[in-house]
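Record type: monomer structure entry
Structure origin: computed from sequence
Chain ID: A
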Amino acid sequence: MIPKKHKEQVPTPPLKDGELAHTLERRHVVMISMGGIIGAGLFVGASASIHATGPAVLLSYVITGLMIFFVMRMLGELVIERPEIGSFLNHIRRGMGHNVTFVLGWGYWLFWISAIAAESIAGGEMLQHYMHIPPEYSFAATMVLGPLLVIAMMLTNLFSVRGYGEFEFWFALIKIVAIAAFIVIGGIALSHFFGFKTGSVSNIWSHHGFFPNGVIAIFTIIPTVLFTVTGSEVATIAAAESDKPAENVAYATRTIIFRIVAFYVVSIAIILSIVPWDQVVPGISPFLMALQAIKIPYASEIMEFTILIAILSCLNSSIYATSRTLFELAEYDDAPRWLIHTTSNGVPKRAIITASVIGIAISIASYISPSHTFSYLLSCAGSIILFVYIAIGLSQINVRKKMQTVNKLPIFQMWLFPYLSWITVLSLAAVIVAMLFNDTSRAQIIITCLILAIIGIIRIFTHKYSKTGEMKHSELK
């Protein structure tokens, strides 16, 4: 027999300095998107939303899910039309200009750097509980354990972009399996099979009705709900480092609404059926309360493990998103250019280390000098995501109009343009207005606007481009 000739393997050319790798696959992008949505806010934070709204919180999640779905659809249109230019920040740059991108880019960085600090503190406290450290050593333990978690996730990001993707894939998978198992067990319990006797679907409407706090509560709680389900836009950052950016973003944006409905609405509906809404205690995981109500063994340990995984997942993605935001800002001279240095396997080492060190410093400072300042800044940074989503919508509208003037339409389109695009943008703006008229959120949104204004002032005094930056700008035209 004549041996078959093997096709010669063409060696992959080494990456240049400043060039990111493209080694993520669709499964990574999809799980990164899902992991961004499913955070500790679902497992713990949902209790406050349920307490404030009652069973009508289900409608709040549906409305919020639709808003995010339409934002992602608009973003998908932009990314698929020009997949080569990077994440959503550069698409905002296309549609809204460099000044808006500078302000929102640094605002978005502030959002994620605050998340690193917050998750570091939460993770340190969780590990302290796991390790049964005596209360007298709690301060020192949290000061050490929190930064160690940040360093561990930093190392996974430094190893390779695929390393980040693999960790996030498995973190997200564990969260998905946990929620799916909860839905199955809760469904069996409600059917009263296998000896389960607790819970009834009628609990959703039998405790002072479906709208115990009024219809308006559905809308007043939307800002809180919105902040718990943000993070899906990280998928577009990851898609820029994947093998097929356009296809991966299209797949993620098509399926996101079904994931939000399945994981949030169904699971919370089961919670409300097992534990009446007026028995839910803010700050205590409603999932834990439901599992304890139906007497599931080791319910507390299961939820603690799941919440720890959610914290690690958020920490992992926070370092990734923060470093890539710095990297893209540096590419356009909106941040120090030394941050765009990459290793031989396409990892922005300096940006990752910088983000991690700043996150650790903020967490230590907030723990050494405890006050409400850090938590307040964290909530204000979270509000910035509203302005980012509005900018994505306005960018899609502007870019689409420019395309129509040359008789060109995108392959992947936002439906009912421009009406649905404007409805989405105005809905997000209405959330900001609602926060201004709410006593508990008014100061938060005002300070958020002040933070963005300060960043804008900094832009005025640092507006200077290099030749490389000018070349990058011309690529977006």
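Annotation 1: Confidence is low (pLDDT under 50) at residues 4-11.
Annotation 2: The CA atoms of residues 291 and 297 lie 8 Å apart.
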